[in-house]
Design brief:
The structure holds 2 protein chains of 2 kinds.
Chain A (H helix, E strand, L loop, with lengths): L11 H11 L6 H4 L7 H12 L8 H7 L8 H12 L5 H13 L7 E7 L11 E6 L9 E8 L4 H8 L1
Parallel strand pairs in A: 1-3
Antiparallel strand pairs in A: 2-3
Chain B lengths: L21 H18 L11 H11 L9 E6 L5 H10 L4 E7 L2 H11 L5 E5 L7 E6 L11 H17 L1 E11 L13 E2 L1 H12 L3 E4 L6 E7 L1
Classes of the chains: A alpha+beta, B alpha/beta.
Chain lengths: ~160, ~230
């Protein structure tokens, strides 16, 4: 299990999905009504324009909390998720905010997609938040995204053993 | 706003004499009581996604008001009084005499607890305001139709608009989830409509010209009806 999320690591996918739905491409108008739950990236861009939610002097995790991206039902998992974001290497929490701010300055902001990549070692050059612009992370969607990938590793074995004692 | 194909004028939603909306009101109260008991005085407790989407609606609704001078405001379906936080934040220099109305007693308990020390604030239970205010606003109160028949729900909408008109000396503002065409599918349990449906109603019933605000990122529209 991950070091921050511990037994709540089963919810990591849920937290990523919460972000990905709110920052999703807007469905075509033909299915818009039927799916009318979130307005996707257009809604987010309007909120950013009005309230300046993402800022270069505010951590992404703080903005995520404002947007309810920690979910409703599990306070412990939510707190651990935000802690994970705050402890991203290379000031990753602020880096995410910065790239979102830059994205929202575009005339047509890209939908955003958050995922995780495997971190084999903390010394690896993968031990950072990796940003990829205009990527296609979902093979079943012909859609370019701003992709934000978080480094994640299983909980270290030593820590597991220590926990057992 | 729509072109000729959607400019049909229907005003048949006027509540027939003797229509009893008590059961509709009771169902609404039950729905929101369950929400606030589960999530407390927070946006999900009033069935909103988050503070920014909730406040984006306030931005639009309050375009009705002239903040250069004090005024009185009825907030119909006030929930736990989230509008007061927004007023303090963005319009703190304007004195607003506020009355919040809600059908849910549990919601009002939260509101009174949160705002008990704030001057010029009162709350009352029910959908009918006991006073005439300068302005009235209602955010999201027409969205959750649940399993009410469409005709009955539109009767509720019409009756509410009638009441807002009677109890607002300068105007009122409401919002609706937007349906892009009369044939457009909607999500079950939610009421979606086209702007013309209710701007025409207000024109015919009140002789009022409505201003419709759209394209603020949410799949809905806000209707400002000035006297």
């Amino acid at each position: 299990m991950g070091a921050f999320m511990i037994e709540d690591d089963i919810y990591i996918g849920t937290f990523l999905d919460l972000f990905n739905v709110r920052f999703a491409p807007v469905p075509p108008s033909t299915i818009l009504d039927h799916q009318s739950v979130y307005g996707g990236i257009e809604e987010m861009a309007a909120l950013q324009k009005e309230f300046d939610i993402f800022r270069t002097d505010r951590l992404f995790s703080d903005s995520a909390a404002i947007l309810g991206l920690g979910g409703l039902y599990n306070a412990r998992a939510k707190n651990r998720w935000f802690e994970l974001l705050r402890r991203l290497p290379g000031n990753g929490d602020q880096l995410i905010a910065d790239v979102l701010v830059a994205n929202f300055t575009r005339k047509k902001p890209l939908p955003c997609y958050m995922k995780a990549h495997f971190l084999e070692s903390r010394k690896s050059d993968q031990n950072r938040v990796i940003i990829t612009e205009a990527d296609n992370p979902l093979f079943y969607l012909e859609q370019e995204y701003l992709v934000i990938s978080l480094p994640m590793a299983p909980r270290p074995r030593a820590a597991k053993k220590a926990k057992k004692k | 706003m729509g072109g000729p194909k959607t400019s049909r004028r229907r005003t048949d939603a006027s509540p027939p004499a003797g229509t009893d909306l008590a059961a509709v009101h009771a169902a609404i109260a039950e729905y929101y009581t369950a929400k606030v008991r589960k999530f407390g005085a927070s946006p999900p407790g009033a069935d909103w996604t988050c503070v920014p989407t909730q406040e984006m609606r306030f931005v639009q609704l309050l375009k009705l008001c002239d903040f250069t001078a004090p005024f009185s405001l009825n907030d119909v379906g006030c929930g736990y009084g989230a509008l007061l936080s927004y007023l303090d934040w963005r319009h703190g220099d304007c004195a607003v005499d506020y009355l919040g109305l809600d059908l849910s007693q549990a919601m009002l308990r939260q509101a009174r607890r949160l705002w008990r020390d704030r001057p010029n604030v009162a709350f009352a239970q029910g959908g009918a305001s006991p006073r005439v205010a300068d302005y009235s606003v209602a955010s999201g109160i027409f969205n959750v139709q649940q399993d009410q028949p469409l005709g009955l729900w539109e009767t509720f909408v019409a009756a509410t608009l009638d009441h807002l008109h009677r109890t607002s000396s300068r105007g009122f503002a409401v919002n609706f989830m937007k349906r892009s065409s009369p044939q457009g599918k909607t999500r079950e349990g939610l009421y979606c409509t086209e702007p013309e449906r209710w701007t025409n109603y207000c024109a015919d019933k009140f002789g009022a010209r409505s201003e419709v605000i759209e394209d603020y990122g949410l799949r809905e529209f806000t209707m400002l009806v000035r006297r």
